[in-house]
Amino acid sequence: MDLELRGHAIVVTGATSGIGAAVAARLADEGARLLLVARDEQRLRAALGTLPGGPHATLAQDVTAPDAGRRIVAAHLDRVGRLDGAVLCAGASRRAGVAELTEEDWRTQWELNVLAAHRFLLDAADPLAAADGGGRVVLVSSSSGKRPSPSNMAYGVGKSAQLALSRAWAEHLAPRGVRVNAVAPGPIDSEMWLAPGGLADQAAEAAGIDRDEALARARARVPLGRFGRPEEIADAIALLVSPRAGFATGAAWSVDGGSVPSFL
Question: Which residues are designated catalytic?
Answer without folding.
Answer: 155
